[in-house]
Amino acid sequence: MRRATGGSRYRWQPIRQRLISLPAIGGSLLAVLIISVGVIVYYVFDPSTHQLFPKCIFLSITGYKCIGCGMQRAIHSLLHGDLLQAIGYNAFFVSCLPVIALFLISALFRNRLQRLYGFLSSTPFIIGWVCVAFSWWVLRNVFSL
Fold first, then answer.
1. Which among 48, 136, 33, 26 has a CA at the least distance from the CA of 92?
2. How far apart are CA 40 and CA 105, in angstroms?
3. Three-state secondary structure along the chain?
4. Distance separating alpha carbons of residues 18 and 20, to the nearest angstrom
5. How far apart are CA 85 and CA 108, in angstroms?
6. Which residues make Cβ contacts (< 8 Å) with residue 41, sequence separation at least 6?
């Protein structure tokens, strides 16, 4: 029997929510596992001395640094608590980490942080971030940063 106010759609909603949450939990656990393995690998092995990590193809072909050059070494330095050395390897990456963290938090809590998520995913913000990244790429090669 159907209720006059609710209908069958609302009666089954709790069951659907439980079924949807099971794959979400599995995906979240898989993401945590992959990130944990990555953190352990970057903590244990030094990218500047170990052959496990790939070298920059753009740097080897052109002789110019790309936007991401030094990012692996910066991650290694950050995991060891050496912020100044990480900034020396890739200052742009280190300065972007708080923005990336804010974006991930706002994406996870999108319903509560709608304005922040809307701002960080807006076209003007993304275009501005791309312009800053491009400027960093040019400046690091012109002034050998």
1. 136
2. 23
3. CCCCCCHHHHHCHHHHHHHHHHHHHHHHHHHHHHHHHHHHHHHHCCCCCCCCCCCCHHHHHHCCCCCCCCHHHHHHHHHCCCHHHHHHHCHHHHHHHHHHHHHHHHHHCCCCCHHHHHHHCCHHHHHHHHHHHHHHHHHHHHCCC
4. 6
5. 31
6. 52
Reported as a single tens digit per residue, the pLDDT across 75-111 is 999 999 999 999 999 999 999 999 999 998 888 888 8
Q: Residue-wise over 16-32: b if at least 16 C-beta within 10 A, else e? A: eeeeeeeeeeeeeeeee
Handedness of CA 117, 122, 125, 126 (dihedral sign): positive
Q: Is the torsion defined by CA of 56, 51, 90, 130 positive or negative?
A: positive
Residue with tokens 């076209």: 123
Predicted confidence at residue 8, as pLDDT, reads 52
Measure the CA–CA gap between 101 and 96, rounded to whole angstroms.
9
